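Progress note, sequence design subtask.
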């Protein structure tokens, strides 16, 4: 019985989903409809919740998001021509220090890559 329980615990531990490790500073580079998107983002992670700061141009923006398995999503709001725009990133870790995915803003999509410093 002990062996059966131990085997079950080991099996569950090995198959449990772990959130992607996004904590740290990332350089993000991409484009939406021909417009470049390049910034650095410092993430703090608590379980699967992400918070942080995106440094874009000469401004900092509050970031919120989440992770699950190797996927991560985050967003922040910027001002463009006097109007607020929310930029949403959905990506998948391709390694411990690289992510790639899609950017969505105002109904338009683009692609991005990110590298952990």
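Output:
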């Amino acid at each position: 019985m002990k062996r059966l329980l131990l085997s079950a615990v080991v099996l569950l531990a090995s198959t449990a989903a772990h959130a992607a490790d996004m904590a740290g500073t990332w350089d993000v580079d991409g484009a939406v409809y021909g417009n470049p998107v390049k910034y650095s983002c410092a993430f703090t992670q608590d379980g699967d919740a992400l918070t942080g700061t995106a440094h874009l141009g000469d401004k900092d923006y509050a970031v919120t998001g989440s992770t699950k398995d190797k996927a991560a999503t985050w967003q922040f709001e910027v001002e463009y021509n006097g109007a607020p725009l929310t930029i949403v990133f959905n990506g998948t870790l391709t390694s411990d220090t690289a992510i790639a995915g899609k950017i969505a803003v105002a109904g338009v999509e683009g692609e991005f890559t990110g590298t952990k410093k």
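The helical segments are 2-15. Work on this subtask will continue into the next period as scheduled.
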